[in-house]
Structures are given as structure tokens and as C-alpha cells.
Amino acid sequence: MEEWLTQPEGLADRLRALRTQAGLSGKELAEANGWAPSKVSRLENGRQMPAPADLYAWARACGADDTAAQDLLRMLGEVHAAHRSFRRRMRQGQAAVQDSYNQLVAESRLIRHFETVYVPGLLQTADYARRLLTEMVELHNLDIADVDTAVATRMQRQQLLYDTTKRFEFLLAEPVLRWLLASPEVMRGQLDRLQTVVGVQNIRFGILPLGVPLATTPQNSFQMYDDVAIVETFVGETTYRDDEAATYTRAIERLWTEAVTGEDARRLIVRAAQEIQS
After folding, report:
1. Cα–Cα distance, 31 to 35 (Å, whole number)
2. In this structure, are residues 238 and 82 in contact, taking their beta carbons and an 8 Å threshold?
3. Domain at 2-80: CATH architecture
4. Distance (Å, whole) CA 115 – CA 93
5. What is residue 212's predicted lDDT score, i.e. its pLDDT?
6. Is the Cβ–Cβ distance between 90 and 97 less than 8 Å?
7. What is the mean pLDDT of residues 33-46?
8. Which of 251, 121, 242 is nearest to 259 (CA)?
9. What share of the chain is helix, strand, coil (3-state, %, to 5)?
10. What's the pTM?
11. Measuring CA to CA, how many Å separate 241 from each of 137, 187, 249?
């Protein structure tokens, strides 16, 4: 998110410009708002996400009018719905991206996935992950092909599944079990891996089955880390917070009402594995 706060003429630049135009030092601005001086530095350098109240306080201390405050809020909204292209994210290789997700999971208490295509990275086998990450190199014409390192980094994330202070929810549409995104042998191994999380105490695992009436349309895959939602597409990922993220929360809660869990979910996994053509 820092890259969106600090992009040229972005929110951090705008905050710095307002303070400079007002003739205030960082210390003076902090004192006017009752903040620690370090907060001004963090906001101006994109190391802290401002709250709406911070922006109002900043504008007021700088003597800016309501139009300027509203402009800051608009820019904050754009950051909250930040879209990051995979090409840009992966310019230093895929391992760095995987490490950022490791940190995101480590910092979250409730991790939720709704998937219509892929097995979530937290549940992937190394062979399945390697197939997907290899495709990313080709699809995005990446300059750095660090697939093996990226796979190892993604596998490290799975250690967090054993942290019982966290709760994980994985809801998969049934086609996830049946897309042959890898060889039959790899897919069977992947489906076997899914069975191991059924019934684990801090993991809620379910499948949205085909052939049953649905009250909620499974429009797209998404991930949630506490109150942040991330949606991935062919070209990149978009992050949502606040009201937009709340919509995804409502969607996944509605989808769960029509899911099968426990032994019913296990039976769907076993059936999909049995029907894979060699």
C-alpha cells in the first residue's frame, strides 16, 4: 500500500505540500493536533495509512478549506481501493510477493478465502503451486523467474495454519476440485491434501456444491484478512476496505449458508479424485 500513498502527486505528496504551504514544520503540525512528531513523518512518507479524522485534522491545522479536506478524503478512497498490477508487483520476482502475503497472514487473526478456480495458497501442495507460479512467469512475461524460491516461500505460509490464535475459513466452489490445472497425478495429490484440513479445530472448510439452488451468486474469488478484502484478476489485485470490504463479508457469510462441510465435503473431494482421468 505504501507505493500508492507515495506515488507522485499522491496522498503523501499532497499532505506534505499543504504543510509546506502553511509554513508549518512537522513538529508544529504534530503539536497542533496533539500527535507525536513521528506521526507526521510517517504520514508524509507513506509509512502509515491515515484515518479520515487524521486528514480533517491535517487540513484544519494547515488552514485549508473544506474543499481541500474533501480532496484528501477522495485520494484516501482511491488508496483504499488500490489496484496493483501483477507485472509491477513482480518486477523483483514472485518470492517477494509471496513473502508479502506471508506477512499479511501473520498479522491477521481471521483469514478467509472464497475460491472459484484455485486451491488457496495456504492449502496448496508444492507441485500444484509450482504449476501456477510457472504460469505467472509466462503470462506476465516476467524478467525474473524465481519459481522455486516463490514456491518455498508460499509453503512457509502454511506453518501459520498451526497457530491456534488464528482462524481460517476456506470455502471452495466445487469446480475448484475439478479444474485440471495440473497433471492428474498432481491434482490427486492436491485433493488428498485438502482432506487433511477437514475437521481441523481452527479451520472452517467447506465446498459450494454444483447442482443445488443458490441464493447468492458466486461472482468471483476473493480473500479477506480481518477487515480487508483482496480480489485478484488476470492483470492484478484490488484491495478493499470499509464499506466495500463489508460487502465481501456479507457475501461470504451468505455463501457459507449453502456450503457443505465435514464428511459431506470430504465425499465431494474423494469423488473428484476418483473421477480424474489418467
Report:
1. 6
2. yes
3. Orthogonal Bundle (1.10)
4. 24
5. 93
6. yes
7. 89
8. 251
9. 55, 15, 30
10. 0.75
11. 29, 34, 11
In three-state secondary structure terms, 240 is strand
For 261, list phi and psi in degrees, rounded to 5. -135, 180
Backbone phi and psi for residue 168, each to the nearest 5 degrees, phi listed first: -120, 140
Architecture of domain 84-274: 2-Layer Sandwich (3.30)
- Single-letter residue type at 128: Y
Backbone φ, ψ for residue 7 (5° rounding) = -65, 155
- Which residues have CB under 8 Å from 58's CB, separation 6+? 15, 18, 19, 29, 33, 43, 50, 72
Confidence of residue 89 (pLDDT cuts 50, 70, 90): confident
Give the domain ranges of the chain: 2-80, 84-274
What pLDDT, in 10s, does the model give residues 215-244? Answer: 999 999 999 999 889 999 888 888 887 788
Does the pLDDT of residue 2 top 80, yes or no? no
CA distances from residue 166 to 27, 37, 151, 169, 225 in whole angstroms, order as listed: 39, 34, 23, 10, 11
Band (pLDDT 50/70/90 cuts) for residue 76 is confident
pLDDT of 94-144, one tens digit each?
999 999 899 999 999 999 999 999 999 999 999 999 999 999 999 988 988
